[in-house]
Each structure stands twice: as structure tokens, then as C-alpha cells.
């Protein structure tokens, strides 16, 4: 899996990064979903952790529901799992979607 880290937050431990998964909680940046989707300031479910079950994904806007289902179906609802990772050059297929790239 390739992920693009756009920040490391201010509430993370050493060598951590956030995965922004629909329904996974808004963390320290609650205003993003509120501005874009009209979400409560703490997002849907818990601010840290999000919704607690697959069925709760139906609370989210339709544009976010498939990602929320992925969280429970493929990601198995994991919360802050331990992973091994390494830095790679971000592929253009990803940066063309996000609009973020290093100079």
C-alpha cells in the first residue's frame, strides 16, 4: 500500500503518521470535515477513532461511505495498527489526485 503523508499532526508520537480514512475520526483537525461535509466539529463517532461499526458508515455523506466500508471490510476496523514502512517517491497517479508534491 502506498500512502501520501501530508502532515504529521501535532498530536502524534515519534515516527507516526495519520491515515485519513472516512469514518476513522477527525483527530486534531476537526474543522476539515465540518467545512467540506457539514460534519459535527468532532466528526462522526469519536473525534479520535471515528465510528465504531460498519453499520455506522451509513451516517456519513454518500461520497465517504465506500471508504468507511473499506475501513471495516479490508482494514478490519484496525485502530492505530503497528506497521513497517519505508519512504518512497510518491507516484504521479497519487500526486495527480491530491495535488501535493515535494519540490
Automatic annotation (TrEMBL):
<dbReference type="InterPro" id="IPR052288">
    <property type="entry name" value="GH45_Enzymes"/>
</dbReference>
<comment type="similarity">
    <text>Belongs to the glycosyl hydrolase 45 (cellulase K) family.</text>
</comment>
<protein>
    <recommendedName>
        <fullName>cellulase</fullName>
        <ecNumber>3.2.1.4</ecNumber>
    </recommendedName>
</protein>
<dbReference type="GO" id="GO:0030245">
    <property type="term" value="P:cellulose catabolic process"/>
</dbReference>
<dbReference type="Pfam" id="PF02015">
    <property type="entry name" value="Glyco_hydro_45"/>
</dbReference>
<keyword id="KW-0326">Glycosidase</keyword>
<keyword id="KW-0624">Polysaccharide degradation</keyword>
<dbReference type="InterPro" id="IPR036908">
    <property type="entry name" value="RlpA-like_sf"/>
</dbReference>
<keyword id="KW-0136">Cellulose degradation</keyword>
<keyword id="KW-0378">Hydrolase</keyword>
<keyword id="KW-0119">Carbohydrate metabolism</keyword>
<dbReference type="GO" id="GO:0008810">
    <property type="term" value="F:cellulase activity"/>
</dbReference>
<dbReference type="InterPro" id="IPR000334">
    <property type="entry name" value="Glyco_hydro_45"/>
</dbReference>
<feature type="domain" description="Glycosyl hydrolases family 45 active site">
    <location>
        <begin position="1"/>
        <end position="100"/>
    </location>
</feature>
